[in-house]
Amino acid sequence: MSEQVFEPKIVGFLCNWCSYRAADLAGSARITHAPNIRIVRVMCSGRVDPSFVMKAFSLGADAVMIAGCHPGECHYIEQNYKAMRRFHMLRQTLKAMGVEEQRIQLVWASAAEGQQLAEAIDKMVEEVRELGPLGWSGNWEENGERIQALEDIVKEHEEAMEVTA
Amino acid sequence: MAEKIGVYVCHCGSNIAGKVDVEDIAKWAGENLDDVAVSRDYKFMCSSLGQQMIEEDIKKEKLTRVVVGACSPHLHEKTFRRACSNAGMNPYLMDLTNIREHCSWVHKDRAQATEKARALISAAVQRVKYQEPLEPMFVDVNPATLVIGGGIAGLQAALELADAGYHVYLVERMPSIGGHMAQFDKTFPTLDCSACILTPKMSEAGQHENITLLTYAELEEVSGSVGSFKVKIRQKARCVDYDACTGCGICVEKCPRKVLDTEFEAGMGNRKAIYMPFPQAVPRVPVIDQDSCIWFERQKCRACEKLCPTDAIKFDQQDELIDIEVGNIIIATGWKPFDSKKIPQYGYGRLANVYTSMEFERLCNAAGPTNGKIVMRDGKTVPKSIAIVHCVGSRDDRHNPYCSGVCCMASLKFGHLVLEKTDAEVYSFYIDMRTNQKNYEEFYQRLLGEGMRFVRGKVSEVTDAARMPTEQGKLIVQCEDTLIGRQQRYPVDMVILMGALEPQEDARELGLKCGISCSMDGWYTERHPKLDPVATMTDGVFVAGTCQGPKDIPASVAQGAAAAARVAGMITKGRVMIEPIVATINEQACSGCKICNNMCPYNAIEFLEDPGVSRVITALCKGCGTCVAACPAGVITGAHFNNKQIFSEIEGILWDALQPADDSSPQAEPVPASAS
Questions:
Q1: Which of A35, A46, A61 is opposite residue B112, by nearest beta carbon?
Q2: Do B520 and A70 touch (CB under 8 A)?
Q3: Given pLDDT bands bounded at 50, 70 and 90, which one contains residue B158?
Q4: How far is Cα B176 from Cα B184, in angstroms, rounded to an integer?
């Protein structure tokens, strides 16, 4: 009955100059790819604040893609390197929180690489489909187990506080 | 106060409507999204009727924000901004969301494409609420222009602008302008004498009242932005007084030190320690090569100084930094030849009679070291057979994947010159013959008629190890003739390697100084590969000639002239609009940590010592937003891409992820992969 295929929701932060144009090119060249990615345009991959990624996860995204110009080809000279540094820290942090690596990916796509971007999207969708939903979004009320778990934690915490006090 | 948003969903004929239920989305947006006052769909939003509809709604319905769901903002953002502007709305209060390139054109399933388009529209509606009115900025354009590189492309650009009455600073790294074209003997396919058509342009540039020639000089630093760049040029020490020198050449004649000329003569001839690269050099002012001059080596000689009739030799001359101000920059720095030693199996550097194409250019040049006689390294033997190897370092994944474009024609030219000057047989080893410009194919046909032999195949080896008596003392070219499918050995006397055109060694470095980037291969990236091959992503910086990619002389000239036309347009207009997408720091809240200072590649953030805070220099900011993301206190705002706008966009784009689980949408409550 519940054989329905899981369709992950992926938010993509694409830089205005290379990867957003790569997605445009994929469009004009009609390179079909999975509809699961929803693109937010930023001027540069360096603009992607880790909080954007957390926000997307908290609102129900199953994965986030950050895409920029190739290293050395950044429209803003070298800002994609800064995105790269931030990305690795963010991925590390998310890993510590139990978020699988595949849920946050950094992709380089030049404005001429519509095909490559489309392939990267398809690959990511398959990987995340495999992982299943992240389930960070709301809906706490409907999940008794989660609520119970939360209440347990709060209770433990309170008890611990009482002891030390 | 709640905003009144107008939502406009475009059919784009059937381009969008074919895959996305636009009518349903427009209806849905009007009924379900907060603050949406008007929601419509239309066949072609970008048509004048579509724009008119938006303009009328803005006026009649008193809309405060507009969302258009259509094509890429790279295509029609300006169109819809203008429409809003016409109706009296600030153009930056419009958001164009891409439901064509990113949606209807790339997704197969109508239901899924519609859902995605719905999410994109929802995102735009959420975002647009927080968009702020912005005013574009204008700066005056300094009419002077900097042209970097005095090869044929740079020369053409400089002359076009100078003739139009604008001042040009032409900077050239070598002691003379002229570039690679000055080294060639003939040009294909017309067989014009290269120097004869180039030197008039060189002397014109040298004498032009509107051109300041800065040879033996290099770009040191660029600051500022379109309209008003501040540039520092390093004038290297010539050790010759530029103004006093008459160019008589006595110093060159009397200089006792001879060195191998690896630049102009490509290692085929010698020059003196004080030299002009070639007789027609512009300017006619020699340069002392400090690395080989006897005076700089052991404080002896000074022959040139003693014999100079105008006392122009100045051994103590130092490098000089020249500050200039220009409105635009044209980069025309050209190419460098591939180092054929990187392919050891072709024997260059090991087998004496293997030549590079530049060496052969000098060899057959009437002004070259052999006065145009085609002879082998011993200086007297005329070769009886010559092999020309194509694609040395081009179309080769180990070196450069691209086609260098000019080598096929250059080898035909070589073939013609050899057949004209000697009785030698000429073999051309090619992968594909590429002769796709005006009169090029005809030249190929001509050479077929003249008896040049063509072997289709990639040469695997050039060796002097003879296997048969007929190969004794010869160079043997081993190649699979792919047209007959057989390995063949061709004994020849001379081999010419048609090396690839490669980007200049310091192309990336120069690009960084000017704020432009290179492709993976190292060629400068143009703004658009089809429709804007002259401009770059940095306003006010243009590219011309081979620094943008391999090309022949006519294409370089055309691009040089095109770059000049673009610059002339900017100067005539007088001022240039700058997108107001910049960062600003709330100085009241800034803690002065300086993290943002180091983030900016344009040095657009200065630290004010007195209040101890950072400030963005708006004129230098390009709006990437990296500092905005980096500020630990969150006090930097990126105009048009601020946190509130992007957070709201994320909220909107995931509108359906927050719907209750019993929602009937296809994305609802999936089965976890771990469930058995």
A1: A35
A2: yes
A3: very high
A4: 15
